[in-house]
Amino acid sequence: MAGSTNGARKINADPHQSKIYSEFSRFYDKIFERIFFPRIARVIASLKIPPGARVLELGVGTGLSLSAYPSHCNVLGVDLAQDMLDQAADKVREHGWTHITLRQMDALNLELASNSFDYVAAFHVVSVVPDAARMMAEARRVCRAGGKLIIINHFRSERPLIGPLVDLADPVTRKLGWRTTLKLVDIIDGAPVSIEQKFKTSPRSLFTVVIARNEKEIAAFG
Ligand SMILES: C[S@@+](CC[C@H](N)C(=O)[O-])C[C@H]1O[C@@H](n2cnc3c(N)ncnc32)[C@H](O)[C@@H]1O
């Protein structure tokens, strides 16, 4: 399997997972900022993240979300695509954000200690990675027991007509880098989490916000 490198370290992931984002990283904000940022900012504000909290954002991309985090918490943003991270790094530098660190990393194989974050967020990422359940298992591992998992994503509609209709778009969206068939149950079924909130920020929104408490036993992950 081909992989991208970061210095001497090999990222053990197939580049196709993020290739498309590398290719249009410079245009990403122009297309998506207006659509994604208001919802992300609202969700982050609603968390009322306390001073000193440790936050991990998976698939941080160009750092669209970064201005929404309070400067009193510590944020680590990881992404597979270095080009996306470069855009995020520009924002960090321009704003002088000392509370934000960025690292190139595969969200399916996090090189991070277990139980080391209070919040783990993934905005518009679970349907992009090839194994969303594995990504969520990694998110639960690095999140402390009782910590929060925050997901914003499109999930397959449970409505009888809409679901199959949107499935028709899946072959096209897969080529663009994401799946439209992912269901929320695919990533949380059987996992030790309790969903505290699940909502859409507007009735017609394609995106669902999920805030869940990590109910794992610490011993289960070591
Ligand atoms: C749709 S973008 C979302 C970016 C950002 N979270 C946002 O809301 O604007 C998906 C991101 O997931 C990243 N990604 C894809 N596969 C990944 C993986 N295995 N590990 C980490 N990041 C990954 C892509 O590089 C891309 O930046």
Key phrases:
seven-stranded mixed beta sheet; 24% strand; disordered N terminus; Rossmann fold; globular; 222 residues; two-stranded antiparallel ribbon; binds S-adenosylmethionine; alpha/beta
Structure description:
By secondary structure, the protein is α/β, with parallel strands linked by helices. It has a single domain, classed as Vaccinia Virus protein VP39 (Rossmann fold, 3-Layer(aba) Sandwich). It is built from eight helices and nine strands. It has helices spanning 16-23, 25-47, 82-95, 132-142, 162-167, 170-176, 184-188, 218-221, and strands at residues 5-6, 9-10, 54-58, 74-79, 100-104, 117-123, 143-154, 193-199, 207-214. A seven-stranded mixed beta sheet has the order 5-4-3-6-7-9-8. It has a two-stranded antiparallel sheet with strand order 1-2. Strand 6 (117-123), helix 4 and strand 7 (143-154) form a beta-alpha-beta unit. The model is unreliable at 1-8 (pLDDT under 50). The chain binds S-adenosylmethionine (SAM). Residues 13, 17-18, 21, 32, 36, 59-61, 64, 79-81, 84, 106-108, 123-125, 128-129 line the site of S-adenosylmethionine. S-adenosylmethionine (SAM) is lined by residues 13, 17-18, 21, 32, 36, 59-61, 64, 79-81, 84, 106-108, 123-125, 128-129.
